[in-house]
Every structure is written in structure tokens, then in C-alpha cells.
Design goal:
Helix content: 10-25%
Strand content: 25-35%
Low-confidence stretches: none
Number of domains: 2
CATH topology of the largest domain: Quinone Oxidoreductase, Chain A, domain 1
Number of helices: 10
Mean pLDDT: 97
Oligomer: single chain
Length: 344
């Protein structure tokens, strides 16, 4: 079977790879569609991010869907031919954080396409993969392969919204409207947010944010003072989802937050310097949001029931033989949101 293997920055190759033997509690899956994530782009363009660097050839990809080809001898609750979304998260289930229900903080996490540990955890951009039964989530006939591959980023957004607490009737600000930001808009709307304002520095992401539920989309690059009306009487927003990972975006939003507002930091960027006096005087709460666990099943169920629509965020699909072209265009925020690769 062939896979997309990164060797160094801009050295992505379509190469043969061996599919491991099928275990008793595992599934052999034919991968159909995979979405290119920001971390995939970091590996492709820079060889990694922060201190995480490629030290050996690694298969990329963790946003994937497929169809079950074969089931292990001990698997009785899913059959060959079942279309599934594959959770890339494979926690150990035994460490203290897993035992506390914090699987996203597993001490022995094996997350697809990650160079955070050595040997690297190989990814899912391949024609065939062996997965644990628990990673398979059946999708409805009404859900396309492309939509099914969006379950992972949707799960990230759902986890961020859960971290914010109850949103019913709340006013939310979302800074950064790439795929995760737009999905956070979608998730916040589903959770009952009364007003959602989205900001970004590019036109297309803002247009997509409106398509998935934002009431207002503001181009901060064109109008740096656009949030000023929301700063009256100590602020307007109950919740800030900061998804850009940019310190300037976070600091620019603080004056628009009401006293007691919750800030959910979703985006990962460089280190930030925060105005602690403002946090103190406004009694702001800063919460992190990292990956997901049970939200993956919720993401699939929401799509299966037709309660969310992620199709507006899928902007292009390339055959895996044209993966270089796909990766080159995926970072173009003027024309693309979620670029996917077909392995069918």
C-alpha cells in the first residue's frame, strides 16, 4: 500500500509501506479521504513546530475516514464494509490521566502523524491502516467521506466549546477563522450562543464563518478599531475563543470582554505576554483547550443526525498522487479552507 511520507521540509513522497498484521481487537481499514491539518503543513513546510522536529521518515495525516475491510477475530460489533470516521487519538487507558477521564492528557498517547515522540507515531495518510476497534465510529449513508474526515477538527472545536461552560444565551467572540475557528463558530451556535462575532485578517475565512453561523464577521486587518463598539460599559462578550494563537489577537479582544468573561485559548502559537492587571480587574478566566476525546463520537453523531453542516468548509479535494499540489495550495488562506486528499 502507498502512503504520504515526509522526510524533510518540502520532501514529501508517495511511497510503498507495509500494513501490519491484524490483531484480534483491531480493524483493517481502507482509507478514503484525509484532511490536511495545520500541523501537517508545519511538518511539510518547516519540518515541525516549536521543539517538535522530524527525526525520521513519518507518514503524515490524522483527519481521515475510510471503510472497514476486515475485522479481528475478537470484534463482533462492526462488520466489513462499514464506513467509518477514524479517531487519530489512541490513549493508553491505564495512566492516571486516562483513569481520571482526561484521555487527551494521556501520558502514553499515540496520536497519528506526530513527531512528539521517537520513534514517531506514523500517520493515516495511507491507502490502508490497522486501527483499534475503539477508534472506529460508523457514519451514516448521508455523510460523505469528506465530511466524515472532518470529525477530528470538529471534535477539537466541540472540546473548546465544552471548556467554555454553558453557552446558552451567551455572546461569544471568535478570533481566528481558519477551519478550527469556523468549526468553533458552528459548535458555539449549536451550543446555544445568542450572538457570535468572528474576526480574522483574511476575507475567505470570514465568509466561511458567516456560512456556518457567525452573526458578524470583522476583518481586523482592514478595520483595526472594529471591536471598539463592543468595549462600552466594560465590554460585551461573555466568552472569547482565541483560535489564531496570536498574542495581538488575544490582547486586542480583551477590552471587548465583560467582567467575569471566560477566555478559551485554542490556538497554539508562540509564548505570550499578558496584561495581568486587566485580568485581575475584570476577573477574567483563562482556560486552555487541548485536543479532545469523547467529543469525537459526539462530532460523528452530530453529522450523522444532520445537526451540523461542515460541507461549506471543504474547499478542495486532490487525489493522493497530487499530494504535493494539495499541500502547496492548502496554506493559501485567500482561496482555501480545508483541503482534502482522496485515497479512494
Amino acid at each position: 500500500m502507498q502512503a504520504l511520507i515526509i522526510h524533510a521540509p518540502h520532501d514529501l513522497r508517495v511511497q510503498d509501506t507495509v500494513t501490519p498484521e491484524l490483531g484480534a481487537r483491531q480493524l483493517k481499514v481502507r482509507v478514503r479521504t484525509g484532511g490536511i491539518c495545520g500541523s501537517d503543513l508545519h511538518y511539510y513546510h518547516h519540518g515541525g513546530f516549536g521543539t517538535v522536529r522530524i527525526k525520521e521518515p513519518m507518514i503524515l495525516g490524522h483527519e481521515v475516514s475510510g471503510v472497514v475491510e476486515q475485522v479481528g477475530a475478537a470484534v463482533t460489533d462492526i462488520a466489513a464494509g462499514t464506513r467509518i470516521s477514524i479517531s487519530p487519538s489512541n490513549p493508553c487507558g491505564q495512566c492516571r490521566y486516562c483513569q481520571e477521564g482526561r484521555h487527551n492528557h494521556c501520558l502514553d498517547m499515540r496520536f497519528y502523524g506526530s513527531a512528539m515522540r521517537t520513534p514517531h507515531v506514523q500517520g493515516a495518510f495511507r491507502q490502508e491502516i490497522i486501527i483499534e476497534r475503539a477508534q472506529a465510529h460508523p457514519v451514516a449513508d448521508s455523510v460523505s467521506d469528506g465530511e466524515a474526515a472532518m470529525a477530528e477538527p470538529l471534535a477539537v472545536a466541540l472540546h473548546a466549546v465544552r471548556r467554555a461552560g454553558p453557552l446558552l444565551g451567551k455572546r461569544a467572540l471568535v478570533t481566528g477563522c481558519g477551519p478550527i475557528g469556523a468549526l468553533t463558530v458552528l459548535a458555539a451556535r449549536r451550543a446555544g450562543a445568542m450572538q457570535i462575532v468572528a474576526t480574522d485578517v483574511a476575507k475567505m475565512p470570514l465568509e466561511c464563518a458567516l456560512l456556518v453561523g457567525a452573526d458578524q464577521a470583522i476583518n481586523i486587518a482592514q478595520d483595526p478599531e472594529a471591536l471598539a463598539p463592543f468595549t462600552a460599559e466594560k465590554g460585551s462578550f461573555d466568552v472569547l475563543f482565541e483560535v489564531s494563537g496570536n498574542e495581538k489577537a488575544l490582547r486586542g479582544a480583551l477590552d471587548a470582554l465583560r467582567p467575569g468573561a471566560v477566555i478559551v485559548q485554542v490556538g497554539l502559537g508562540g509564548e505570550m505576554t499578558l496584561p495581568i492587571n486587566l485580568f485581575t480587574s475584570k476577573e477574567l478566566e483563562l482556560r486552555g483547550a487541548f485536543r479532545f476525546h469523547e467529543e469525537f463520537a459526539i462530532a460523528v453523531e452530530l453529522m450523522n443526525r444532520g445537526l451540523v453542516d461542515v460541507k461549506p468548509l471543504i474547499s478542495a479535494t486532490f487525489p493522493y498522487e497530487k499530494s504535493i499540489e494539495a499541500f502547496e495550495i492548502a496554506g493559501d488562506r485567500s482561496s482555501q479552507m480545508k483541503v482534502q486528499i482522496s485515497f479512494a
